Amino acid sequence: MDHFEYRGRELFCEDIPVRELAEKYGTPLFVYSSATLLHHLKQIQTAFASANPVICYSVKTNGNIHIAKLMADHGSGFDVTSGGELYRALKAGATGDKIVFAGVGKTDPEIKYALEQDILFFNVESEEELHNLGAVAKSVGKVARATLRVNPDLPPKTHAKTDTSVKGVKFGLDIDTVVEVARGVVGHPNLQVVGLHMHLGSPILSADPYRQGIEKGLKLIEAFRQMGHPIKYLNMGGGFGIHYRKQEALPAGAFAEVILPGVKAANCQLVLEPGRFVVGNAGILVSRVVFTKESGGKHYIIQDAAMNDLIRPTLYDSFHRIWPVQPAGNLPAPPTDYEVEIPDTFKQNVVGPVCESGDYLAKDRALPVMKRGDLLATFSAGAYGMAMSSNYNARCRAAEVLVTGGTARLIRRRETYEDLVAAEVDCKD
Ligand code: LLP
Fold first, then answer.
1. Whether residue 332 is found in the same domain as residue 271
2. CB atoms within 10 A of CB 254
3. 404 Cα to the center of ligand 1, angstroms
4. For residue 228, is it within any domain?
5. Cα–Cα distance list, 390 to 67, 116, 310, 397 (Å)
6. Over its length of 429 residues, how does the chain's per-residue pLDDT go in tens digits?
7. 32, 57, 114, 280: which could join 276 in a potential S-S bond, CB 3.0 to 4.6 Å?
8. Is 161 in contact with 181 (CB distance < 8 Å)?
């Protein structure tokens, strides 16, 4: 369910024509629907309500402070992965008691910053990190709460670049040695091991890995408790998939069905770190066609969004639906099935202006004839879109607009050429 719909021959975000936003704010432009975002947050809150979970929105997905504030205002905490993300969460109005901190390379200044904020806990990913956390906590006279992030060694379940629970990846503690690692800090005066964490990968379109992960997790929790660690939290991370191609995502309830019994069996407080599920389908990237051309028998739509705005197709070969903002002819709405022949379309490559052959939003995609000046919408761009954008080719980052009903609000202005060089102009030894 989302609030991007075609009314007549025009795409709307909630009650505002996307064309109007493109005219007012320019392109490329990220447009977010707050109703869609809140709908998805609510889905998770409702599906897991019986466990009264601590929901920590994953800031890396879309860290805009206005989006984060919307999340905080509706009861969410935050999962952060750097000092910068912690800063963003705090800027959005979060308090430490609802912030968790993951990542394989937390630095001492980041750890101190998080300790100052008295965050709920650190998701610890290696033995060395665990001991260092204790040492840093000691140096500032604090006790750090930690959950041990385990890599449960599950079969592949998503793109290799984003699968975080197959054997040998850099994430988490090895399931074969995690119990010994936990034993090594029993009674540490500056460390409290309060839980177990796993983030299985992203996006995941089946509940089965969560069932398998919990099964393994229950045994670990038992072992940690036996050695005296006060295990209170089971943090199942994020990873819930969304609609990219069609309606392929599972409802939150499908994940709840396998996670809730595990949480009960573990007698733990459930923590979740959803990102993509909340914001992914709540955002689109709007771009304008600059030129079209044909080369070597291929048809190209060159538009003003590029891999620096949305790198997912380039990086993971991800599929994002793309469709005209104002479709003409007999094509009122985007296809729901890309496996079949789509009338009045032909295969085109949607590319950007960046100087790389890998700069594309879609390859061989069924699209109608487009012409210079037409607008395109790339869907499901709310997660890992703006968050992974860059200034490559000295391109100014896009603007972001948040729509609520009939109101649109600029939540990040388009960057300027001055912004591009600001940190270079200002620098001093
Ligand atoms: N928790 C941890 C520890 C994570 O590493 C992540 C995502 C999440 C939660 C949130 O996962 P989500 O609910 O959004 O699936 N750039 C890639 C995705 C990388 C995911 C990184 N970790 C993409 O565009 O597909």
1. no
2. 16
3. 26
4. yes
5. 19, 31, 9, 7
6. 899 999 989 999 999 999 999 999 999 999 999 999 999 999 999 999 999 999 999 999 999 999 999 999 999 999 999 999 999 999 999 999 999 999 999 999 999 999 999 999 999 999 999 999 999 999 999 999 999 999 999 988 899 999 998 999 999 999 999 999 999 999 999 999 999 999 999 999 999 999 999 999 999 999 999 999 999 999 999 999 999 998 899 999 999 999 999 999 999 999 999 999 999 999 999 999 999 999 999 999 999 999 999 999 999 999 999 999 999 877 778 888 888 888 889 999 999 999 999 999 999 999 999 999 999 999 999 999 999 999 999 999 999 999 999 999 999 999 999 999 999 998 888
7. 280
8. no
Q: What range does the domain containing 323 cover?
A: 4-31+280-424
d(CA 183, CA 382): 42
pTM over cut 0.90: yes
Binding site membership of 314 for ligand 1 (Cβ less than 6 Å): no
| CB contact at 8 A, 368 and 327 | yes
**Atom nearest to 384 CA in ligand 1:** 24
CATH code of residue 157: 3.20.20.10
62 lines ligand 1 (CB under 6 A): no
Asked whether residue 429 is domain-assigned, the answer is: no
The answer to whether the CB of 63 is under 6 A from ligand 1 is: no
**Same-domain status, 234 and 374:** no
Q: Which of 48, 60, 164, 242 to mutate to test the pocket of ligand 1 (most atoms within 8 A of CB)?
A: 60
Catalytically annotated residues: 355
* Ligand 1: centre distance to CA 292 (Å): 35
| Residue 400: both structure tokens together | 């972001």
Separation of CA 167 and ligand 1 centre (Å): 18
Return the DSSP state at 204. Answer: B
β-bridge mates for residue 13, sequence order: 4, 16
- CA-274 nearest atom, ligand 1: 13
Enter the tokens of residue 7. Answer: 């009314």
Quick check: CB of 213 below 6 Å from ligand 1?
no
Residue 199 beta carbon below 6 angstroms from any ligand 1 atom: yes
Q: What separation in Å is there between the alpha carbon of 238 and the centre of ligand 1?
A: 7
Indicate which CATH number applies to the domain containing 14: 2.40.37.10
